[in-house]
Automatic annotation (TrEMBL):
Name of the protein in its database record: Aldolase
Record keywords, A-Z: Magnesium, Metal-binding
Entry keyword annotation includes Zinc-finger: no
GO annotation terms (biological process): oxaloacetate metabolic process
Pfam (any one): DUF6986
């Protein structure tokens, strides 16, 4: 290699390095909710999460208890009493992880004065959630879904967004209580639906900039998630996938992409009876989304099932079994968040999530301990030769289980692993200063 070529390589790749750092920063390590619950905004109060928890527990009791629902979900409740007990506690303390006050499809078209009032009320409710998190069953994240930026609803969507954020900052009282320095709560989520063109995302960025300026917020404070409900966002008119261009246009403001089961299916002409998360069209769309956001730090969520467990006992059993199967299917495919539309879906959501994170927890911990203990290059003493990328995936799995409450830190420590170290492995950015070759003994629980 000629002398100085390394310096020339640095110069040639400087722009590429900058783009990779900007557009593919990796997972930031923030908590991702296991679900988003959608409720029409005019039906939400600060008591809604607790009411959903109570309704879900009552529905489970009517069906014979959480253990009976676990059996419907294919979980051996007798062999997993801790799982059932943990889900019972979850339904009491944090039944809803993420709540979206809906001012779009679930809300419908209303007179402007009525939607104005509901947008203001939604802001006050989200502020109440922030105040209640330390003491009540408040969601860890909450926000609104406003109307899309297609011509017919654009003005209404922008007006609702403005009213909601202005009220939250100016009247939410979060500054006065010391909860927030800028008036916005942690965990605030704004949902932009029915995106059909990159230009709509660019307009949302401009709207965020204008609102930040008007409300005295730091530039970049407002982020949003995008609902993938149109085929144009999977395959553009030029034959390419628009998602990378959309994320670049968003300038780092996109927090998540959510698949819209029914709008997307209907747009492809799929009959209502066959619209489902299990349809091949859904798999294709979500696979494209998954590849497009890999490494970007943007979260993914699957959609909902509109089959609700609210009928007679037989209908409820069938529908709970379906819901559990869909949740498990998505988890196994790397989609760790979904939508729930009714309180009765919460028991199977949490039972299935907890089973997913507990089923392979011992194996994941064993493999992480074995990976940490590798000291002789080329000589494997474990039965699985995990690469660093797989070690990160195992650590992410363990961290997700910790965050949703499926497993406890005491259980992780009992395996010889330190929770903070596992979190650092799951989030490479936080551990970037560590040497990739430094691995300590399994007794310390440290992994590079």
């Amino acid at each position: 290699m000629p002398t100085g070529f390394g310096h020339r390589a640095d110069l040639l790749l400087a722009g590429t390095d900058a783009d990779l750092a900007r557009f593919h920063p990796g997972d930031a390590g923030a908590r991702q909710p296991v679900h988003t619950c959608y409720v029409p905004a005019d039906l939400v109060s600060e008591q809604t999460p607790a009411q959903w928890g109570e309704a879900s527990s009552s529905a489970a009791e009517e069906a014979g208890g959480l253990a009976a629902l676990a059996e419907l979900a294919g979980i051996d409740a007798a062999a997993a009493p801790d799982l059932v007990a943990r889900v019972g506690e979850k339904l009491r303390t944090e039944p809803v992880e993420d709540l979206r006050l809906d001012l779009e499809d679930g809300y419908g078209e209303r007179p402007d004065a009525e939607e104005d009032a509901d947008a203001v009320r939604a802001a006050r409710t989200v502020a109440a959630f922030a105040r209640n998190r330390a003491t009540g069953a408040a969601p860890a994240s909450a926000g609104i879904r406003f109307k899309c930026f297609e011509a017919a609803t654009r003005d209404r969507g922008l007006r609702t967004l403005d009213l909601f954020l202005s009220t939250l900052v100016r009247e939410g009282g979060l500054r006065e209580t010391g909860i927030s320095a800028d008036g916005l709560p942690e965990g605030l989520v704004l949902t932009l639906p029915k995106v059909s063109a990159v230009e709509q995302v660019a307009v949302m960025v401009e709207a965020c900039l204008a609102l930040e300026d008007a409300l005295g917020l730091p530039t970049g404070r407002l982020r949003f998630e995008i609902q993938m409900e149109t085929p144009d966002m999977i395959l553009g008119p030029d034959g390419t996938c628009p998602i990378p261009a959309m994320l670049r246009a968003a300038e780092g403001r996109v927090s998540a992409l959510h698949y819209g089961t029914y709008d997307y299916s209907a747009s492809l002409g799929i009959s209502g009876r066959f619209q489902s998360l299990e349809h091949p069209a859904a798999d294709h769309a979500m696979n494209v989304m998954q590849v497009a956001v890999a490494g970007t730090g943007v979260n993914l969520s699957d959609g909902s099932t509109n089959r609700l467990p609210v009928g007679d006992p037989a209908q409820r059993r069938e529908t709970w079994a379906l819901h559990s199967r869909l949740v498990r299917r998505s988890l196994e495919r790397g989609f760790y968040q979904g939508w729930d539309l009714h309180a009765h879906q919460l028991p199977t959501r949490h039972l299935t999530n907890y089973a997913f994170y507990r089923d392979a927890f011992d194996d994941a911990a064993r493999r992480l301990v074995a990976y940490a203990g590798r000291s002789v290059p080329g000589i494997e003493t474990a039965d699985v030769a995990d690469e660093p990328a797989t070690a990160r995936a195992l650590a992410c799995y363990a961290v997700r289980g910790l965050l949703c409450g499926a497993v406890g830190e005491d259980e992780l420590r009992a395996t010889g692993l330190d929770p903070e170290t596992v979190r650092a492995v799951a989030n490479p950015g936080a551990a970037a200063s560590s040497s990739a070759g430094d691995r300590s003994s399994p007794e310390t629980g440290e992994i590079a």
